[in-house]
Design a protein that fits this description.
434 residues, alpha/beta, Dihydrodipicolinate Reductase, domain 2, Alpha-Beta Plaits, 3 domains, six-stranded parallel sheet, 17 strands
Length: 434
């Protein structure tokens, strides 16, 4: 059979990694698919002599790749949501299958892209868009297809996890660790997408759609970053038997779907609490199989390129069988996608860690507990720490039982209005993940 021709748009870390992997493992991939797979055309803005592109057609105009009639599969790895969207839609219009690692593109424009692909009878594969080399997309679409998924929680941004690990293990400040992460190449010069939770929210949007069979709804995801976390909070959490992780959480409830990214206290004995450094992990709770954990490298040339090439293999197998891949893009049949409501954050029920700076005098804690009680907030534990600067105020840490976030917001507003409470109340949500 004739070789399958691949066109790669973008030869950065991921594109270059995919090119090398396709070359290095060419014989093995041919054994897996029954076809030779070769890169025939690349769209790249600058010269990449280290990749040895002598036998490949090179275009400075990325659209030349998708217009090339010899290209069977287009790999989009340029990132962003403008040019990438145009390239993907044009490739689909030209009858080409697409492989992409672009989580932002899919989270924000996936509904449009998948509808276009369905109409044209081509496939858009996107394993590399979430958690790098961890095959969580295939797990949700295929491995757990027999299950009704109740919830999932994931560490799906390696930069944030590296920062929190360093803050916990070495007692370092956020800004200090962020600078190191940038120096090591884990964080961009502008780290906003990583540290403010936007990157994780893109990925969570995709995972939730696959888990619950609903449209991609990134705009409705609650997103909170880690920039306000202090080493004191990380240390206090550890003393109480918890770890702070930046989690993406999607949960099915009778009222709708929770879709939220925020720092979260979780018990230190949970497996996911011990995922450290730049690693990713996703914990999935399903009705038949129970909890399952998927762990591995979430970024980098090797892991992400591995996922890209795995998608190419799936598409080539389908081409060899002369049929489109038979797994729906979002795991459920397109006509069965349900527009389930996304809950506002105020409608979410969870437990909380609260830290307040209280004047060290009689009656203050009584006022605090009175306010919490008036909002039906039960206290699980309360600790008063000694003053760090020998001043008139002391840190007070409270753990609460689960409560509606709307009530916690009201209680915090009243606590901050007390003359004996200095500054803002620090609030971190807590999950048992049981």
């Amino acid at each position: 059979m004739k070789p399958v021709n691949i066109g790669i748009v973008g030869l950065g870390t991921v594109g270059g990694g995919a090119l090398n992997l396709l070359r290095d493992n060419a014989a093995e991939l041919s054994r897996r698919t029954g076809r030779d797979i070769r890169v025939s055309h690349v769209g790249v803005r600058r010269d990449r002599p280290e990749l040895n592109l002598n036998d490949i057609r090179i275009s400075r105009d990325s659209f030349a790749v998708v217009q090339d009639p010899a290209v069977d599969i287009v790999v989009e790895v340029i990132g962003g949501t403008t040019t990438a969207r145009e390239i993907v839609l044009q490739a689909i219009a030209n009858g080409k299958h697409v492989v992409t690692a672009n989580k932002a593109l899919l989270a924000e424009h996936g509904n449009e892209i998948f509808a276009a692909a369905e109409e044209k009878g081509v496939y858009v594969a996107f394993e590399a868009a979430v958690a790098g080399g961890v095959p969580i997309i295939k797990v949700l679409r295929e491995g757990l297809a027999a299950n009704r998924i109740d919830w999932l929680a994931g560490i799906i941004n390696g930069t944030g996890n590296f920062i929190l690990t360093e803050m916990r293990d070495k007692g370092r400040d956020f800004d200090d660790v962020l600078a190191e992460a940038q120096a090591l190449g884990y964080a961009e010069a502008d780290p906003t997408f990583d540290v403010e939770g936007i990157d994780a929210a893109h990925k969570l949007t995709i995972l939730a759609s696959l888990a619950f069979g609903m449209p991609l709804q990134f705009a409705k995801a609650y997103t909170e970053g880690i920039t306000q976390l202090t080493r004191e909070d990380v240390s206090y959490a550890e003393e109480l038997g918890f770890r702070i992780k930046h989690l993406g959480i999607a949960r099915r409830t009778p009222a709708g779907i929770e879709l939220r990214v925020h720092p979260t206290l979780i018990p230190a004995d949970r497996l996911i609490a011990n995922v450290n450094g730049v690693k990713n992990a996703v914990l999935v709770q399903a009705d038949a199989v129970g909890p399952t954990l998927y762990y591995g490298a979430g970024a980098g040339a090797g892991p992400t390129a591995s996922a890209v090439v795995a998608d190419i293999v799936d598409v080539v197998r389908a081409l060899t069988a002369e049929s489109a891949p038979n797994v729906p893009h979002l795991a459920f049949m397109p006509q069965a996608i349900a527009d389930t409501p996304i809950l506002s954050m105020e409608a979410v029920v969870t437990a909380y860690y609260l830290r307040l700076q209280a004047l060290d005098k009689p009656g203050v804690l009584a006022d605090v507990t009175r306010i919490l009680s008036s909002h039906d907030i039960s206290i699980e534990a309360i600790i008063q720490k000694p003053s760090r600067d020998n001043g008139d105020s002391v840190p007070v840490i409270l753990l609460t039982k689960p409560v509606l976030e709307r009530e916690m917001n009201r209680a915090i507003a009243e606590l901050e209005a007390l003359s004996d409470i200095a500054g803002a109340v620090t609030r971190i949500r807590m999950e048992t993940l049981a």
